[in-house]
Design a protein that fits this description.
Structural class: mainly alpha
Shape: rod-shaped
Number of helices: 1
Length: 99
């Protein structure tokens, strides 16, 4: 013969199971919230990393442009030095002819 227990013991058992189930659902909900926060945090980190990469590319372009400008300025400086030397030579020749 199988004992099913008194209605009181069945009610206590049902309440116990219901309490455990509620506790597990609460824990699961808390875990889902924590997981969601972590995913959002990871998403934000990825967004910040992408923004930093874009900024670095912009800075790299600015640096390359500056290097190009410096090269051009060096060429212009060399040309100017040449022309100053030429004008100096012409000035000397002119002074020699005027003597």
């Amino acid at each position: 013969m199988m004992a099913t227990g008194t209605p009181e013991s069945q009610a206590r058992f049902g309440q116990s199971v219901k309490g455990l189930l509620t506790e597990k659902v609460t824990t699961c909900g808390t875990d889902v919230i924590a997981l969601t926060k972590q995913v959002l945090k990871g998403s934000r980190s990825s967004e910040l990393l992408g923004q930093a990469a874009r900024n670095m590319v912009l800075q790299e372009d600015a640096i390359l442009h500056s290097e190009d400008s410096l090269r051009k300025m060096a060429i212009i400086t060399t040309h100017l030095q040449y022309h100053v030397e030429q004008s100096s030579d012409l000035q000397d020749q002119l002074n020699h002819l005027l003597k």
